[in-house]
Write a structure and sequence with these properties.
15 helices, Heat Shock Protein 90
């Protein structure tokens, strides 16, 4: 955090109608303990108000509000023999970014403490949390409702809200983001006034007015709309990597590419490049020879979008990776799955809700959870083996396999296909039976016994259960084990 133009910041803060939980005006108060208590109170107030910063301003009379100047000077202030800034940082818990600025404006001296909360937990000074109630500073423990609300606020702030790049001029901020892509995705006419463009970006949480004449770009804005992700240190390692191998293993690669644009601004071109490089089957359509991709594009799109949206951004140095082999495609993102792999189709949970919401609004993925359903439906329609979901401690990997006939599938692949087919049928309230599974596997009706063997094994291993415990074998129906 850096105050680039303190006079501009002071003018902007003076426009606030009233003091608030995150803003306090003072004339002169050189008591270090009193300042420390206000730092705690204002930091906690900023978290409750979902603000990025709180401000303690010296040199402004509040009632009536006017600039009067101050004798406070942070740079020379001490607590005993210790420099004030060092003492303050030592007394505040958890550690905060606190910018103490002394400056002259209109011939008068002012000082501002700009406080950036950590959203880790309520902020303490000398072991005690404070909060601003009305116009008074109080101990947080005396107001249990505020304390509960503050603890809830500490879990609300996510990676998307943090600042990727601060103190950008309006022109520079717009050059770093693909603003035209935003208006294309939302089907809105781009405003002629630049100020209206800023309002749109601010309303969506992509940039923030830093209150001293410049703008801060959030991680959300950067990860979605960056013209070049390398311009943003916080997301530089989150660029999508695409690797194509020759054959079924990693022994020899064809090429490796790293995406340069944001997830939204670069999504269409990334999908186009990906689909062009996927293995194809040569076939004839109405007498015309065509190369048809082995994988349905909706499955690739939704699995890619899921990897982007549900990754764990706190894992540094790792981003989504797409690996293309001759017989499969693997999409990996940092962070384990928040959902058990057996419940991928029926449960809904998002790690980065604002990112997910923006991608849905932009039309780049389905509504929450619907994308995986459509992926599985498309896979079944092409009679491909069921995808495999592999969740480990620090990553989530989805493997989409190339075509295999029923006889070519191994036992594990048949069981996986049976289970997810059973889940899909349960979702539409039409439980799986031998006939539906034969159709899924493209098995002839007179070969029902081979499919019965798959069902029997799934029951034996407790992957599926009869829909009705009293049903007979004829026209028997089945549901996932967790639905029985």
């Amino acid at each position: 955090m850096q105050i680039d133009d303190p006079c501009a910041l002071l003018a902007r803060l003076m426009q606030e109608k009233n003091e608030s939980g995150w803003l306090e005006f003072k004339t002169n108060n050189a008591n270090p303990e009193e300042i420390g208590e206000y730092v705690s109170a204002l930091a906690n107030g900023a978290m409750l108000a979902d603000r990025d910063r709180a401000y303690l301003v010296f040199g402004v009379q509040y009632k009536p509000k006017k600039k009067v100047g101050t004798t406070i000077n942070f740079s020379t202030m001490k607590k005993g023999s210790e420099v004030f800034s060092n003492w303050l940082q030592r007394m505040i818990e958890p550690k905060l970014l606190i910018d103490l600025v002394d400056f002259e404006c209109e011939g008068m001296q002012f000082s501002i403490a700009a406080i950036e909360p950590t959203y880790d937990r309520p902020v303490r000074f000398s072991g005690t949390e404070y909060i601003r109630i009305g116009e008074n500073k109080k101990k947080l423990g005396e107001f249990p409702e505020h304390e509960r609300a503050l603890w809830l606020a500490t879990g609300r702030r996510k990676f998307e809200d943090a600042i990727a790049l601060s103190n950008q001029t309006p022109e520079k901020a717009l050059s770093l983001l693909d603003v035209d892509a935003y208006f294309d995705f939302t089907n809105e006419n781009k405003p002629k006034k630049i100020s209206e463009v800023y309002k749109k970006l601010i309303a969506n949480g992509f940039i923030k007015d830093n209150m001293n004449g410049k703008y801060d770009i959030t991680n959300l804005g950067a990860i979605l709309l960056a013209t070049d992700v390398s311009s943003f240190p916080s997301i530089r390692g989150k660029a999508v990597r695409l690797i194509k191998y020759i054959g079924k293993d990693k022994s020899k690669s064809d090429f490796e590419r790293t995406a340069t644009k944001g997830y939204a601004s670069g999504f269409v071109n990334l999908m186009r490049f990906l689909m062009i490089n996927l293995p194809t089957n040569e076939t004839y359509v109405e007498g015309v020879r065509k190369n048809i991709p082995l994988y349905p594009d909706i499955a690739i799109r939704e699995l890619l979008a899921n990897a982007l949206i549900h990754q764990d951004f706190t894992i540094s140095g790792a981003g989504p990776v797409i690996e293309i082999y001759s017989n499969r495609i693997e999409i990996t993102n940092p962070g384990n799955s928040l959902i058990e792999t057996d419940r991928m189709l029926d449960e809904r949970r998002s790690r980065n809700e604002k990112l997910a919401s923006a991608m849905r609004i932009f039309g780049l993925c389905e509504e929450r959870g619907g994308g995986l359903d459509k992926t599985m439906i498309a896979v079944e329609q092409q009679h491909l083996p069921a995808p495999e979901f592999v969740s480990s401690k620090n990553s989530m990997r989805v493997i989409l396999f190339g075509p295999k006939t029923f006889t070519e599938m191994n036992k594990q692949e048949k069981q996986r296909a049976c289970f997810y087919h059973c889940v899909l049928r349960w979702i539409i309230h039409d439980p799986m039976n031998n006939s539906s599974l034969r159709e899924r596997f493209l098995v002839a009706d007179d070969d029902y016994q081979s499919v019965s063997s798959v069902i029997s094994e799934a029951i034996k291993t407790k992957r599926i259960v009869p829909a009705d415990p009293n049903q007979g074998k004829r026209n028997a129906r089945y549901v996932p084990y967790w639905a029985g």
